[in-house]
C-alpha cells in the first residue's frame, strides 16, 4: 500500500444541502475526494451524512469500493466514520474512526480538534497513519468546535483523576453524582465497566493509553485519557 503523507477532512455547506468532503487515508481510500451529504437525522436528532448516490461502485483502493457514512452511535455515545462493506446498505460497515467528545448535545460531527478522531486499527491495520489531529488533517464547516458548554467546562475542570500515568489505582475527585465508569482502549474496545467508585483499580490492564468515561446520574459524560504503566 502507498505511504500515508496527509489526511485531510474538510466540511462545508451550501444553501441547499449540508455536505462533508472527505479526502485522506490514502492507503485505503485512494487520493480522491468523497462527498458526503446530510441525508436526515436519527432517532436522537443527530445528523447523518452519506456519500450519495450510493452506487456500490465508487473505486476505493484497499476496500474495493468507498461508500461512507458519518453518524452517531448512541449506545457507545460517540460519532463514527464508517465505510460500507461493498453492497451499499451499511448493514455491516467497517468502523474507520470514532470520536468521543463528552458532548451528547451536538447535532453535527465534531471537528478534528474536538476530542480525538481515533483510528480503528483493528480494521485499518494502522494504514490510516493514526488518529486525526489538527497537525495531520483539517475538518471545517458543519461541525461543532467546542467539547462542552461553559457550565460543563467549569464542572469538568473541577474533576480530576490522579495519578496519571498510573500503575494500580486511579483516584477521582470533584464528582459526587457519578453512576458508572467505563474504560476503553485506543481501538475503541470496552475493557472495563463497573459501578462508579472514586478508587478505580486498573492494575490488570496492560500498559498503554486508555479512555476513562464517567457517567453521572443525569446522563452527563466526562472523559479522561490516562496512561497505564
From TrEMBL:
For this protein, the record's Pfam families field holds: Por_Secre_tail (PF18962)
Transit peptide among keywords: no
Q: Which residues form a coiled coil?
A: none
Q: Which residues form the Secretion system C-terminal sorting domain?
A: 161-222
Instruction: Mark the transmembrane ranges.
Output: none
Q: Which InterPro entries match?
A: Secre_tail
Report keywords, A-Z: Signal
Indicate yes or no for the key word Translocase: no
Q: Which residues form the signal peptide?
A: 1-17
Q: Which NCBIfam families match?
A: Por_Secre_tail
Its recorded name reads: Por secretion system C-terminal sorting domain-containing protein
Amino acid at each position: 500500500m502507498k505511504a500515508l503523507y496527509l489526511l485531510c477532512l474538510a466540511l462545508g455547506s451550501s444553501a441547499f444541502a449540508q455536505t462533508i468532503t472527505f479526502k485522506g487515508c490514502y492507503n485505503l481510500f485512494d487520493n480522491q475526494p468523497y462527498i458526503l451529504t446530510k441525508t436526515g437525522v436519527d432517532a436522537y436528532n443527530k445528523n447523518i451524512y452519506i456519500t450519495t448516490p450510493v452506487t456500490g461502485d465508487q473505486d476505493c483502493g484497499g476496500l474495493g469500493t468507498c461508500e461512507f457514512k458519518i453518524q452517531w452511535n448512541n449506545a457507545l455515545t460517540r460519532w463514527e466514520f464508517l465505510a460500507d462493506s461493498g453492497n451499499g446498505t451499511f448493514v455491516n460497515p467497517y468502523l474507520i474512526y470514532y470520536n468521543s467528545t463528552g458532548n451528547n448535545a451536538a447535532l453535527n460531527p465534531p471537528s478534528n480538534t474536538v476530542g480525538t478522531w481515533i483510528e480503528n486499527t483493528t480494521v485499518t491495520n494502522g494504514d490510516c497513519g493514526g488518529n486525526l489531529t489538527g497537525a495531520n488533517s483539517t475538518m471545517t464547516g458543519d461541525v461543532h468546535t467546542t467539547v462542552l458548554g461553559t457550565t460543563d467546562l467549569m464542572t469538568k475542570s473541577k474533576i480530576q483523576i490522579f495519578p496519571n500515568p498510573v500503575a494500580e489505582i486511579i483516584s477521582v475527585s470533584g464528582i459526587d453524582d457519578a453512576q458508572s465508569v467505563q474504560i476503553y482502549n485506543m481501538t475503541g474496545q470496552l475493557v472495563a465497566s463497573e459501578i462508579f467508585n472514586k478508587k478505580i483499580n486498573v492494575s490488570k490492564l496492560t500498559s498503554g493509553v486508555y479512555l476513562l468515561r464517567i457517567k453521572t446520574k443525569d446522563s452527563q459524560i466526562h472523559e479522561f485519557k490516562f496512561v497505564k504503566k
